[in-house]
Amino acid sequence: MHLGTLSLPDNQTRAALREGDNWILLEAADVGALVANPDWRNGLDSARATGQRIAEDEAALLTPIQRPAKIVCCGLNYHDHIIEAKREIPTFPTLFAKFADTLTDPDADITITGSHKVDWEAELAVVVGSSVQRATPVEAANAILGYAASNDVSARDWQSRTLQWFQGKAWDNTTPLGPVIVTADEISPKDGLEIRADIDGEVVQRSNTRELVFDSADLISYVSQFTTLRPGDIVLTGTPGGVGLGMSPQRWLRDGEVLTTHIEGIGTLRNRMRLSASEST
Amino acid sequence: MHLGTLSLPDNQTRAALREGDNWILLEAADVGALVANPDWRNGLDSARATGQRIAEDEAALLTPIQRPAKIVCCGLNYHDHIIEAKREIPTFPTLFAKFADTLTDPDADITITGSHKVDWEAELAVVVGSSVQRATPVEAANAILGYAASNDVSARDWQSRTLQWFQGKAWDNTTPLGPVIVTADEISPKDGLEIRADIDGEVVQRSNTRELVFDSADLISYVSQFTTLRPGDIVLTGTPGGVGLGMSPQRWLRDGEVLTTHIEGIGTLRNRMRLSASEST
Which keywords fit this entry according to its UniProt record (chains A, B) (predicted)? Predict the structure, then answer.
């Protein structure tokens, strides 16, 4: 099942379910509001029968979860990125947080003013479907709603100002999410999905989600030891090798470049960079 | 002006304004909902004239801001704590985030299961009163609603597992906030307020908010360069020297101990520790 949040002409938003080449509108403002109702699956049959349909090529997709209460991100979680960053394979996941404001739409421009070192990090996002607290990995796996693509676009100059990465990672409207959420019954990142980032069509990251050190269930289980995760909460699983920070010479995004993030079986994010203080190296 | 959020007998909560020995109930579920309305000050006169009053000693105070969208915390921000942690006076503030779920009430028990090294960090909390984006320190100062006491209770074993502190800092219901918000016209942390933490009556931290490296306005200005702060958002300004991590031998909170956090002109938090995996050293 593919779930999305659509922008409607009257400035409203609606959760929707993809069927063939159409989106069927559901009775919720976004996928977050949809899955907050534990009975949400019960309404799907009647929506399929009578819901308003919008052709896929006329639908504008937004961040599927508009206001997640929690976004927890994992760093250093792909074997190849860990090697690139010259670090050891970790015993524990390295975690930090973003805010709902950090998210942006699958095809939005990303505007950053005040960073000279904007970098890309293609990531698999996991969306929580039911509440978990001190969950085992098996319980955590059962609590996964589905998966989306994301890009943890980072202001490396701010990230490296202090020991804590947060200030390079929580810029408003810089982390695209989507384009849809593919439910966990349809794809298995653990079995392997290609993940890729391109800049103006040039491939810069290409790896596979089976390279994750801590998989989606491991991360949800771990985080749930200290904080409850609820429907609509998001875990970003980290990025593979190929970021600009790890290149020699280092490379940063330039104003006007289009960053494309693709995960097999999920879809593609396309975000043009609007950078007013960027450097080419 | 002292603002608080009260628990009422019917499981409801209400924002309230202190007047003498009474709390006057206001038309909002908490101080966060109150200040989300930019005209909130206009309603105070009629509340003073006709609002329901509750005697101070019959009022149960809750976290004044129940669901802040953003809690940004600063580490290494008191001269004495920086020396204790054997670090340099910083050029930039070290920042990390907490979630709304991390907060707890001014007199709540703090329950932590799964950490062996629970430590205390008395902190001044700053509450944002109006939206700020890329604000100067002067604009930031004007956007401050007021101040509360807080304690960034930390699971040091989790905090030190990886480079990022977040996982030791975001345990549900571990950061008390309150007991009230004192508005910025009444107190000036920059001019000096004593800040103190006691364990079962023994003073472990005692410093003054004039020792802050980055003051409240500096921090709000800095954070607002990358993320918009809005009414009800919270900035924790860091802790002075005297934490258990810095003692020799190191000292951790024990099950049953009462942690008291006091800031001059604001008030006192009293939190009993409920630790099921604590160590005495």
Answer: Hydrolase, Metal-binding
A276, β-bridge pairs: none
Q: Find the residue in B nearest to A103 (Cα).
A: B227
**Do B248 and B203 have their domain in common?**
yes
Q: B94 to chain A: nearest residue by CA?
A: A162
The count of domains in chain A is 2
Minimal Cβ distance to A166: which of B95, B100, B167: B95
Query: Tens of pLDDT along B165-174?
Result: 999 999 999 9
Does residue A261 share a domain with residue A165?
Answer: yes
CB A267 within 8 A of CB A197: no
A154 shares a domain with A36: no
Using CB atoms, which residue from A96, A102, A161 is nearest to B166? A96
Structure tokens at A273: 């960079």
- How far apart, in whole angstroms, are the C-alpha atoms of residue A269 and residue A262? 6
**The domain spanning residue A137 has which CATH number?**
3.90.850.10
Q: Is A95 on the interface with B (CB under 8 A)?
A: yes
A228 touches chain B (CB under 8 A): yes
Alpha-carbon distance values, B10 to B6, B13, B14, B183 (Å): 11, 9, 11, 28
Domain finish residue from A13, A40, A62: A62
Q: Which residues of A touch B158 (CB under 8 A)?
A: 226
Q: B41 lies in which domain range?
A: 2-62
Confirm whether A280 is domain-assigned.
no
Instruction: Select from A16, A41, A62 the last residue of a domain.
Output: A62
B34 DSSP β-pair partners: none
The three-state secondary structure class of A15 is strand
Structural domain includes residue B281: no
- The CA distance from A131 to A143, in Å, is 7
Based on the domain organization, do A14 and A83 belong to the same domain? no
Position B230 scores a pLDDT of 98
Q: Which residues contact A54 (CB under 8 A, 6 or more apart)?
A: A6, A16, A22, A23, A25
How far A173 CA lies from chain B's nearest CA (Å)? Answer: 9
Same domain (yes/no): A215, A87: yes
Residue in A113, A133, A162 to test binding to B, most B beta-carbons within 10 Å: A162
Based on the fold, state whether residues B44 and B101 are members of the same structural domain: no
Q: What is the pLDDT of residues B46-90, one digit of tens each?
A: 999 999 999 999 999 999 999 999 999 999 999 887 887 788 899
Rounded to a whole number of angstroms, the distance from the CA of B196 to the nearest CA of chain A is 26
Q: Are residues B89 and B45 in the same domain?
A: no
In-domain check, residue B128: yes
**B167 shares contact with chain A (CB less than 8 Å):** yes
CB B203 within 8 A of CB B42: no
Judged by CB atoms closer than 8 Å, whether chains meet at A92 and B162 is answered as yes
Which residues between 262 and 281 in chain A have a beta carbon less than 8 angstroms from any beta carbon of chain B? none
Q: Which of B162, B165, B221 to mutate to test the interface with A (most CBs of A within 10 A)?
A: B162
Q: Are residues B189 and B139 in the same domain?
A: yes
Nearest CA in chain A to B75: A164
Cα separation, A197 vs A271, whole angstroms: 11
> Per the domain annotation, does B259 fall within a domain?
yes
pLDDT at A281 over 50: no
Please give the mean pLDDT across all residues of chain B.
96
Task: Flag whether residue B136 sits within 8 Å of chain A, measured between CB atoms.
Answer: no
Name the band, by pLDDT with cuts 50, 70 and 90, for residue A84: confident
